[in-house]
Specification:
The complex is a heterodimer of chains A (223) and B (471). With 223 residues, chain A is an alpha/beta fold. Helix content of chain A is 37%, strand content 19%. Chain A has a single domain, classed as P-loop containing nucleotide triphosphate hydrolases (Rossmann fold), CATH 3.40.50. Chain A contains 6 helices and 6 strands, in the order βαββαβαβαβαα. In chain A, strands 2-3-1-4-5-6 form a 6-stranded mixed β-sheet, sandwiched between helices. By secondary structure, chain B is an all-alpha fold. Classes of the chains: A alpha/beta (223), B mainly alpha (471). The structure holds guanosine-5'-diphosphate, magnesium ion and zinc ion (ZN). Magnesium ion sits at the interface of chains A and B.
Chain lengths: 223, 471
């Protein structure tokens, strides 16, 4: 969904559209992170938009235009079961924990397990230890956290929404990986299309005629 | 309000909402002649059958109705019986029937004519700024797609139809990228054209694709509706949602959020339904802003949306959600503002389906008591609910009115069609008569006058002389 089969820019040449979902226990700083990133303020009371749960950010990466939709999620425990509804079709997920709260790190690990199980390697994961400004009270071991992230194919970052530290880098790195992933998928699709094009039936793909194209442009179109 | 202590009043009597088939438990729908989707299909297929029977009446083996047995619910079949008798009593007029039958089943494009006209009006100014030709091309393309899909809509499963529609959306994008008349348009303009096309197609196909009888949608609607009724005691506190119940401004916004979510059911195209969800969520964010003096985060938003959904109890909730998920352009449901709000609505519904004592922070026994209706918690929202009920009634009546207006229009146009048919029939007969008369002209010869033998008529002079008997 992020790219068109021609492997170029998607959605009418307007660039890539990425959906990133924020997951983590309540009060670890998910909302603060995204508000800091998009609006560059710490206190949500100062946000200019009507809401701070769904935010857009446009950036340019390696000459590509990227449109980032960041979806905040409700962190209350009773909403945990709704996770799949939110992370469906996401390109990336940011799993946030509070460096002063071991419990929140365990919750983040649970999210990683669930996401890998449900979406496999298609989704780019970033584990974020927030509130690093409270280093004195840090209880989650940095080295362990980094090792864990590496073991599940995720990146690890420390951030502080309060001091605006590490946030830009974290989202930028995630975008790069999502872009690579999208290009990889586009190449695979192109290869598949190329194969399909070799079959004579593929020639009938006409924009005008729905029925013909419908039959031939299915995923396993060739005979 | 003086009647604040009373619970919500029943809006329309249950019987009126039920399917016209007495034996059926489902809800009826005005668009389907008061039947539920299943019964409507049966009625429609019966009607089609008896019509084709009428058309081929001289075919000797049209007789037995095998399908009768499977739908033997008495009231319904009696009604059907009557209907069949009436259709069959019609005099045979095959002799003068003009070759293509004028009573072809109306296509869904003709049926949606007034909605399409409205859609066109809404987009008229946009197409005036670009090119009227573009609108014509889109409409023609859409009509051909609609015809193809409508022809198979009854035969295919929803999943297949979903794939087919999504494929059509992709084809439209390709077409707009490839064809010359679209080449001057900006990306935004193309997107608006695409939305127009999507709305055009789905406005036509709405009746076939909304809550199709091959799915369980209708059952699920009933289940969630009953569930929400059972949960009528849930208030803002239970959901830990920051809605200050006493503030009039907040209350107003709650009502407008409810109105918006209720209006979702009457929209036809998935994009339009989605817009209702977006407007509902917009009202929720405004009310949260008023309530807490800052922008709301997901932690505040979701409980508020759940609250609004519970208080609104939107009709055919599951059908609407499934219809949007299946037939809205999937790109619009993946990322973007509308996608986020719609996802939250799905989340809210899923939460409601699974609500238990823990999710509303109550001990198990208290929760059970509320659910069974034995105990009703005191709530300032009781009075508000009354108002919500009235709003819902107004909303439903507006929909009914709209429907009546449409049906009235239909009747009028059918009447004028009938009028034309009568005239044509008359002409037809006249011309046939003329032709017959020409073939076998009736020539009136002057009456021969009996010859008066005795008169002095000069004619008699020329007669031969009377035969004289010869002896
Ligand atoms: N010290 C510190 N506090 C933070 C930081 N990020 C968030 N907070 C605070 O943590 C609390 C919860 O933040 P919030 O963004 O609402 O968390 P969410 O529930 O995960 O969305 C708020 O009081 C924030 O002010 C941070 O980087 N450092
Ligand atoms: Mg939050
Ligand atoms: Zn019925």
């Amino acid at each position: 969904m992020a790219t068109t089969p021609d492997g170029g820019e998607s959605i009418g040449g307007r660039g890539y559209n990425f959906k990133v979902v924020l997951l983590g226990e309540g009060c670890v700083g998910k909302t603060s992170l995204v508000v800091r990133y998009v609006e560059d303020v710490f206190n949500t009371k100062h946000v200019t938009t009507l809401q701070a749960s769904f935010l857009n950010k446009k950036l340019s990466l390696a000459g590509r235009r990227v449109h980032l939709s960041i979806w905040d999620t409700a962190g209350q425990e009773r909403f945990h079961a709704l996770g799949p509804i939110y992370y469906r079709a996401s390109n990336g997920a940011v799993l946030v924990y509070d460096v002063t709260d071991q419990d929140s790190f365990e919750k983040a690990k649970n999210w990683v397990k669930e996401l890998r199980k449900m979406l496999g390697a298609d989704i780019c994961l970033t584990i974020v230890g927030n509130k690093i400004d409270l280093q004195k009270e840090q209880t989650v071991d940095t080295k362990l956290a980094e090792e864990y992230a590496a073991s599940v194919g995720a990146s690890h970052f420390h951030t502080s929404a309060k001091l605006n530290a590490g946030i830009e880098e974290m989202f930028l790195e995630l975008c790069k990986r999502m872009l690579e992933q999208a290009q990889k998928e586009a190449e695979q699709r192109m290869a598949a299309d190329f194969q399909a094009a070799a079959s004579p039936r593929r020639n009938v793909v006409v924009v005008e005629d729905g029925e013909e194209a419908l039959e031939t442009s299915g995923r396993s179109a060739c005979c | 309000m003086q009647s604040a202590a009373r619970g919500p009043s029943p809006r329309v009597s249950e019987a009126e909402l039920k399917c016209k088939n007495d034996e059926c438990e489902f809800y009826g729908n005005a668009q389907w002649g008061g039947y539920c989707s299943k019964c409507r299909k049966i009625v429609a297929s019966r009607a089609a059958k008896s019509e084709s029977r009428l058309r081929h009446q001289h075919d000797s083996f049209s007789g037995h109705d095998r399908s009768g047995a499977s739908y033997s619910s008495s009231g319904f079949s009696r009604f059907e019986e009557k209907r069949r008798q009436q259709t069959e009593k019609k005099p045979k007029m095959n002799v003068f029937k003009k070759s293509p039958s004028p009573k072809e089943p109306a296509s869904c494009i003709t049926l949606a004519a007034s909605e399409l006209e409205q859609l066109k009006q809404e987009n008229a100014s946009f197409f005036r700024t670009i090119d009227q030709q573009v609108e014509k091309d889109i409409a023609a393309t859409c009509r051909s797609h609609v015809d193809k899909i409508a022809a198979v809509a009854e035969l295919k499963s929803v999943d297949e139809l979903e794939k087919q529609i999504q494929q059509v959306y992709k084809l439209l994008v390709n077409k707009m990228d490839a064809f010359k008349i679209y080449s001057r348009l900006s990306a935004e303009e193309k997107d608006q054209c695409l939305i127009y096309a999507e709305n055009y197609i789905m406005t036509c196909l709405y009746t076939s694709l909304f809550c199709p009888p091959t799915t369980e949608d209708e059952n699920k609607d009933l289940i969630i509706q009953n569930r929400i009724r059972q949960l009528s005691w849930v208030n803002a506190e239970h959901l830990e949602c920051k809605i200050s119940e006493t503030e009039p401004e907040v209350r107003e916004l709650v009502y407008s959020a409810i109105t918006e979510i209720l209006s979702m059911d009457s929209a036809r195209a998935p994009n339009e339904k989605l817009s209702c969800v977006v407007r509902c969520c917009g009202a929720i964010f405004r009310l949260l802003q008023v309530a807490q003096g800052g922008p709301a985060s997901a932690d505040d938003f979701l409980p508020a949306l759940i609250f609004v959904t519970l208080k609104a109890n939107p009709p055919r909730l599951k059908s609407n959600i499934n219809y949007i998920s299946r037939f809205c352009n999937e790109n619009r449901l993946v990322s973007g503002e509308a996608a986020y709000y719609f996802t939250n609505l799905c989340g809210a519904v899923s939460f409601i389906e699974g609500i238990g004592a823990k999710s509303v922070n109550l001990p198990n026994d208290e929760f059970d008591q509320y659910m069974s209706g034995k105990v009703v918690p005191v709530s300032t929202w009781d009075s508000a609910l009354l108002m919500c009920e009235s709003m819902r009634v107004i909303n439903e009546q507006l929909t009914t009115l709209e429907d009546l207006e449409k049906r009235n229009g239909n009747t009028l146009s059918t009447a004028s069609l009938l009028h034309q048919e009568i005239l044509a029939f008359q002409d037809d007969i006249c011309s046939k008569l003329d032709a017959l008369v020409e073939q076998a002209p009736l020539i009136l010869r002057p009456i021969k006058e009996p010859t008066e033998l005795d008169s002095e008529n000069p004619l008699t002079e020329s007669l031969p002389p009377p035969i004289v008997p010869q002896v």
